[in-house]
Amino acid sequence: MNLTKTRNNNYCYLALFEANPRGAKNCNFANINMTIRTKDIQAFFFSQYFSDGLRIATGILIPALVFLFFDRFDTGIALSLGALCVCVVDNPGPVVHKRNAMAIANVCIFLVAVITGYARHNVVILGAEVTIFAFIFSMFTVYGNRAASVGTAALLIMIFMIDRDMPPSQVVPYSAMILAGGLWYMLFSLVFFGIRPYRAAQQALGENIDDIVKFLRIKADFYRPGADIDANYHKLVSQQIQVSQHQDAVRELLFKSRQVVKESTNASRILVLTFIDLVDMFEHIMATHYDYTAIHERFDGTGVLEDIATVISAMADELENIGFAVLSNRRYKNLHDFTPELEQLKLKIDEAGKNSQEVSNLVLKKILINLRDLSKEIENISNYYNSRSSEILIDTEHNIDHSRFITHQDFAPHIIFDNFSWDSAAFRHALRVALVCMIGFIAAKTLSLGHHSYWVLLTIIVILKPGYSLSKQRNYQRLFGTITGGIVGVLILLFIPNVDVQFALMVVFMIGAYSFQRLNYIVSVIFMTPYVLILFKFLGVGHLDIAKERVVDTLIGSSIAFIASYWVFPSWESDQVKQSLADVIVANINYLVKIAESITGKTVNTTDYKVARKDVFVKSANLSAMFERMTSEPKSKQKRVKDVHKFVVLNHILSSYIATVASEITVKGLHNPQADILRLVKRNIAVLNECSKKLDGARIEFTGEKIAAPETDTDQSQAVSYTLLKEQLGFINKISNDIARVTDMIIAA
């Protein structure tokens, strides 16, 4: 069948490779780990990334291939174009949210396609439409990421329709075909998830376990001889961002899906219980935080620290195996018993205490207790995936209000109008996108080569992000990926003449592009560029000319977007740092208040405690992410970056110690509480409240009653626990005062 007859319309099919305006999760090229294990490869093919790539590529290809068979390739292209634009909205999340967003996207796509189809006959009207629509749909960001993707889908169809040559009488029918393609993809995606409703949550859960495994291995490095404590803190904080992002994704999938929360099947119950235990486990891992420098000074010569690191690494390996079982939907029957290793470690800790009478081994005993708790938690999670244990989960009850763990987006119309202010980052970003798209449109009409001028606008839409650092990162990734992928594509076309092999490679590249679009954007672009070159070869367009045109248009679009991100209404992280600092301090204060309430004998609801804990983790991860973005901005725009870094590290230590104390007091219970412990907690609350006040943050007061004096018959083990608890609270007070000093320095900038 001859495809060259569609040559005049071939630009439409480029859409099949450009559904990539979404953010990549780990997209820094320098972070690509070249050591790939077999299990990592297997995990990728079981992951939601590959599942998404396969689903999207299939949903886009089917209309084109089916209508190609019936010699109606033009119709197939239009349908696939609609499918492509709607797939941008098909982000991970509850199915009902996907359905609603894709339905709204279909309406927007149809209306924009009709308007653009008529407006393109007058270049002035078309330029005005590009500018106005770029502003309107960029403002969708005020309603969250999924709404922003709806706006991106509308902008994509506008861009693809700009060079679509058709008479006015064909505009509505062609737009209707695009709408039909969007509806097809929406139905295809919903059926896909309807067949296996729990699979997406299961995949996200398995990937979250893998994130915690990496976090645990970094924790193990703190105990190794010669450990670089500062470098480990940096890695730990970065990994905490990944853990938090994945936990948020799992919360969305589990607690916003009625089918998971309300149903009482084993499958849904296992997912919820696993996630609850996983979050508890992460808190306990955070709680295994101590003054590592002091520990190394005391115990480096005993060899016990290396043994602790070895046990933690072994537990990480075991947890990784469980995570792989979850990801691959298999039973896990080979749980390792850590009792012998822990008993051996206990003997070494006792020996270290005997050999160094002047140095207390109390902290090592506390670490041992934490490791035993961690071993038990690993066993509990593995039991959910053991064929014997999981059958009785149907009777397990957990009285937790899941709705309090998720955020609910408000879609009230007034929100978008409330953001029509220069103080709104979304408003400034929308203005920037509108202005830059107007410049890009003019450049596309005057500077670009060939007949695919919309590539310039497409590059701008994909690259331009609300923050400078994200735009800069995406710019480099786009350029590197386009040039590298272009070389790969040209080599394939020159040295592999077999048409069947070329088509097979094109499909592989397409699946790869969509599989890596959230995982690693550089790899995604490297895959998509040879895909489009092979595609245009099938459409009868010279591949060398297309490769040159694509690179040139990408350079033009990248240059415009990069300059605009610096000069046109820029958004710098340093302008928002005070709010991020205040948020994390308030979250820590609220966490401490729950501890103080427990000390006074007040019953703290489990949900209240876990919500406070979740807020600390989320706000801490947001602060760390903000700092990483700040470090990629120009030096002249970075304010007190060293002090902010100190604050980030101190906050991580503070949160870890609070988690340790919370585990002792709130979770395990504190019998016969002492008044001096409450005084220490209240002192920490007061210091952090003062910090929050300086940052214009909220103030949370603790108004609990005093507690009675301690009884005199406290046993020795409880006395030891109190001693360690006072040391930990004293250290929290020291960290709180350090945070107060750093806060003063940041404010003074």
Pick out its properties:
749 residues; 27 helices; disordered N terminus; mainly alpha
Describe what you observe in this structure.
The N and C termini lie far apart (68 Å). The protein has helices spanning 38-46, 48-69, 73-87, 95-119, 123-138, 145-162, 171-195, 199-221, 229-255, 258-262, 266-287, 292-299, 304-327, 339-355, 362-383, 414-418, 425-446, 454-463, 468-495, 499-515, 521-538, 543-567, 577-599, 606-631, 641-667, 675-694, 716-748. The protein contains 27 helices and no strands. By secondary structure, the chain is an all-alpha fold. Residues 1-36 and 392-397 have low confidence and may be disordered. Helix 8 (199-221) runs parallel beside helix 11.
**Major sheet details:** none
Structural category: mainly alpha
* Overall form: globular
| End-to-end Cα distance | 68 Å
Average pLDDT for all residues: 82
Number of strands: 0
How much helical structure, as a percent, in the residues?
Answer: over 70%
Radius of gyration: 28 Å
List the helices and strands in order.
HHHHHHHHHHHHHHHHHHHHHHHHHHH
Number of helices: 27
> Unreliable segments (pLDDT under 50, ≥5 consecutive)?
1-36, 392-397
What is the percentage of strand-forming residues? under 5%
